[in-house]
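Sequence design from tokenized structure. All designs in this work follow the same two-part layout: the structure record, then the generated sequence. An example of the structure record is given first.
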């Protein structure tokens, strides 16, 4: 651990103690997240930012243990200075917790071979079907969840993407598992539509 040298010795001691204190707290919550991830049958992933935690696991395992996931979400809010974001799932279907904002959500993300302008028509079909599918389960956008639908071309222009994201605030955490279940069911329809438009999912992306 690196510490900034201070001219004033007292300030240096205070910074040292504070840094070690934060490290102890962060170590505790990371251990809690790690143990949960392994109990789910997942593996901990290296993340780009030290304030993030990632668990590569079947999202259905999270749903089966959702009560504990809820508890962890609340614990993370208490430790939001140490772990700002946590992710549980696969690259194409995952839960996330944004502890600083007291929000959590579920995302379906598809990376596909470029299909040019047809991506717009594919995106329209996917988005419309998504809202209709969740309505069948009694979930209305903006009322039960905050929708975020994204599509476009990746930065390297070698692929295109479609993301469906449903986010809830902490008071509504108790319905996120049902929303995720419905979205995993709709994921099959998304894959059918991708095939219908002649696109192919990028397997390397899914197998990470």
């Amino acid at each position: 651990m690196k510490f900034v040298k201070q001219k004033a010795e007292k300030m240096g001691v205070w910074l040292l103690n504070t840094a070690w204190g934060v490290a102890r707290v962060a170590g505790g919550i990371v251990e809690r997240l790690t143990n949960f991830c392994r109990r789910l049958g997942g593996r901990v992933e290296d993340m780009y930012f030290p304030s993030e935690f990632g668990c590569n696991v079947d999202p259905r395992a999270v749903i089966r243990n959702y009560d504990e996931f809820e508890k962890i979400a609340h614990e993370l809010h208490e430790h939001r200075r140490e772990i700002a974001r946590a992710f549980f799932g696969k690259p194409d279907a995952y839960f996330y917790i944004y502890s600083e904002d007291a929000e959590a959500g579920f995302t379906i993300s598809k990376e596909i071979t470029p299909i040019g302008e047809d991506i717009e028509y594919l995106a329209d079909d996917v988005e419309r079907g998504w809202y209709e599918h969740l309505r069948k389960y009694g979930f209305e956008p903006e009322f039960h969840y905050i929708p975020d639908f994204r599509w476009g071309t990746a930065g390297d222009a070698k692929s295109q993407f479609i993301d469906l994201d449903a986010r809830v605030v902490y008071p509504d955490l108790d319905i996120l598992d049902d929303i995720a279940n419905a979205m995993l069911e709709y994921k099959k329809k998304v894959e059918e539509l991708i095939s219908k438009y002649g696109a192919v999912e990028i397997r390397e992306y899914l197998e990470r």
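The first strand starts at residue 43 and ends at 45. We note this feature because it recurs in several other targets discussed in the main text.
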